Amino acid sequence: MSSGHRLRDVEQQRPLLDGEEVVESPHSDADQVWFIQDCCGMVCAFITWFLVFFADFVVTFVMLLPSRSFWYAVVNGVLFNSLAVLALASHLRTMLTDPGAVPKGNATKKYMESLQLKPGEVIYKCPKCCSIKPERAHHCSICKRCIRKMDHHCPWVNNCVGEKNQRFFVLFTMYIAVISGHALALCGYQFITCVRVQWSECSDFSPPVTMMLMIFLCMEALLFLTFTAVMFSTQLHSICNDETEIERLKNEKPTWERQTRWAGLRSVFGGQPSLMWISPFAGLKLPTFVRKRTWRGGAEFSV
């Protein structure tokens, strides 16, 4: 490493010894599927899927199939199930997409020389994952990696929300909020219908079971609607202001040139506004996976 360049430990803020070098990982991030093996995150992800399937069961089998109106059942059934598929697909893309992890162990002499640094320029090394830390990157103790433009780590998607998967997280919160509102509306209409017929013909289940399932669904939908609507609005606010949640909480002064609102939206969702912005299947590739070994805090697969 050139003596004109300075490499600092970003946590301890001390220059590293000359000649200090970390062996670079021979594995390429591009050849691996991202998955975090965190018990809490996997349990939260399972609960998320279970609650969506529970809501789908109640809507389909308790409220729609017993309905006397064929078109009411078909239209609402297709709409709710389509939105549920989009929500779960967005969840999967958020969970299984690399959020923007900095390669481990890239603090090598060869890599330093490839950066073509100016004399006296200071770069920072993360002491936890031994990587050169780009601007606006933060280390996640759960993912055990530095993440570019890390917004936060969300246990419900068992992953960090960062530069490469923020779009899918926004879609996930949006679709969950929409189906939660739809479920509340269906519950309200079903309750009125059941009262009119004195609970005798409004469901194939007994009145106590029907009432219990509808109450649980209303509670779930209200909770999910509130939480995801708040998250959706805060994510859009962060994107439009070109500021992550971590940067906002730390009150960091921007050392980068902030993008305009539309430029920020285009950088996250990709290109000009289109229906692809709201599709979690955009850019989806389906490689074949072969289990290889455990790596980087999660399961690593070869493609």
Explain this structure to me?
It is built from 7 helices and 9 strands. The protein has 303 residues and is of the alpha+beta class. Helix 1 packs antiparallel against helix 2, helix 2 (70-96) packs antiparallel against helix 4 (166-196) and helix 5 (207-241) crosses helix 7. The protein is elongated, with a radius of gyration of 24 Å. Mean pLDDT is 82; it is low at 1-28 and 288-303.
Condensed summary:
By secondary structure, the protein is of the alpha+beta class. The chain has 7 helices and 9 strands; from the N terminus they run βαααββββββααααββ. α4 packs antiparallel against α5 (207-241) and α5 (207-241) packs across α7.
Question: Average pLDDT, to the nearest integer?
Answer: 82
Q: What would you call the shape?
A: elongated
Into which percent range does the helicity of residues fall? 40-55%
Report the uncertain regions.
1-28, 288-303
Tell me about the largest β-sheet: 3 strands, mixed
**Number of helical regions:** 7
User: Percent of residues in beta strands?
Assistant: 5-15%
Q: How many β-strand runs?
A: 9
Strand order of the largest sheet: 1-2-3
Distance between the termini: 34 Å
Which oligomerization state do the chains in this entry correspond to? single chain
Name the structural class.
alpha+beta
List the helices and strands and how they pair.
Layout: E1 6-9, H1 39-64, H2 70-96, H3 109-114, E2 122-126, E3 131-133, E4 137-140, E5 145-148, E6 152-154, E7 159-161, H4 166-196, H5 207-241, H6 245-249, H7 261-269, E8 290-295, E9 298-302
Parallel strand pairs: 1-2
Antiparallel strand pairs: 2-3, 4-5, 6-7, 8-9
